[in-house]
Amino acid sequence: KKFQLTGDAVLKFSDQYGVFNGSLHRLYRQAIVSSSNIAYDRLVKITGLNEMNNHLKLNYGLPNLVLQCAYGGKGNLLKTPQIYYHQNKRKGILPSRVSNYSKSNGCSYPENCTTLFELLEVLRRVVLDEKIPYKQKFDVDKVDKFRLRECLLKAPSKIKKTIQRIFGKKAKIFSKDGLYPPHDVLVTALIEKGNGLYMIALSIPHTNRVNNKRRLNKISYLTLKTLKESKQEEFLQENRGTFLDIKINFIKEKKNKVKIYVKGVGVDQISGWIEKKKIEFTKGKNEIFSGNFIFMRKDIYVLVLNAKKNGKLTGYKTFAFEIK
């Protein structure tokens, strides 16, 4: 975005995988539809490891996201090569860069880290871009947003037949699977059927291709069937590690302000995000932290919390709440 480049930009550069000469759209299509690890590595290097991690963390409320691992099998992601580009009548050079991104944040090097919630949140913001508030949108060209949704529609899914079994063959399936042998296999999907929207993210230990698919479909069938038959909207909540108790109070003197209280036993720091806004928490008595959130509209909001003790992550919570 800094250089005003879109998916139509044609790039030429050399890296550990050879010479690339093609459009940015071609790269992200390969990464999503074909699940190309080389295309993924190149996209991260084009953006820059520092920019990719820090920008997403600070501006989009994705505190557990750490990208530092090259999936293509060669080298690392620290160095961005010099890139020649042209788009329409503009030509130029993106200078080479070396990232100094810290190998920390509770993520063992050289692994990539995130949570199932964050994977679904990114998928939701891309697919539902035209329906979500401006503050939740990614700062991406409108044409590229459309192309990204088309790529997600065309991407293969290990649970496609299960989704069609429950919602029918006319259901739209926006999906992205992942495989990290010998560790994990995961699927994420957003399903549109009529006026209904359903989201699912699953991760299981990797064994073999046949067993992976069988287990994923068994779990997804039971989960999606329950969601479809539910008579009320299910609000999102996820808890890991230290349990965090939340209380939200409206401030009578200010109609658009709420105070959020969080209690975590043995916790000395709480970090929070709502949409792109970071919520500052201060510690009070009895291990209770408090922070303020000013809202611009009545809607459903998702609060993301990280709990730390002595600088080490000990708890994580996502919590949806509604302001009526």
> What percent of residues adopt helix (DSSP H or I)?
25-40%
Q: What is the CA-atom radius of gyration, in angstroms?
A: 21 Å
Q: Please, what is the average pLDDT?
A: 87
Low-confidence stretches: none
Beta content: 25-35%
The largest sheet is: 5 strands, antiparallel
Structural class: alpha+beta
Give the N-to-C terminal Cα separation: 36 Å
What does this structure look like?
With 324 residues, the chain is α+β, with helices and mostly antiparallel strands. The chain has helices spanning 24-32, 37-47, 49-60, 116-127, 142-154, 160-167, 209-229, and strands spanning 10-15, 18-23, 79-80, 83-87, 90-94, 97-98, 172-180, 184-193, 196-205, 237-241, 245-250, 257-263, 269-274, 277-280, 282-283, 288-294, 300-309, 312-322. The strands form five sheets. Strands 10-18-17-13-14 form a five-stranded antiparallel sheet, covered by helices on one side. Strand 1 (10-15) and strand 2 form a beta hairpin. Helix 1 crosses helix 2 (37-47), helix 1 (24-32) packs parallel to helix 5 (142-154) and helix 6 packs parallel to helix 7. The longest helix is centred in the last third of the chain and has 21 residues, at 209-229. The mean pLDDT is 87.
What order do the helices and strands come in, and which of them pair?
Elements: E1 10-15, E2 18-23, H1 24-32, H2 37-47, H3 49-60, E3 79-80, E4 83-87, E5 90-94, E6 97-98, H4 116-127, H5 142-154, H6 160-167, E7 172-180, E8 184-193, E9 196-205, H7 209-229, E10 237-241, E11 245-250, E12 257-263, E13 269-274, E14 277-280, E15 282-283, E16 288-294, E17 300-309, E18 312-322
Antiparallel strand pairs: 1-2, 1-4, 3-6, 4-5, 7-8, 8-9, 10-18, 11-12, 12-16, 13-14, 13-17, 15-16, 17-18
Helix pairs in contact: 1-2, 1-5, 6-7
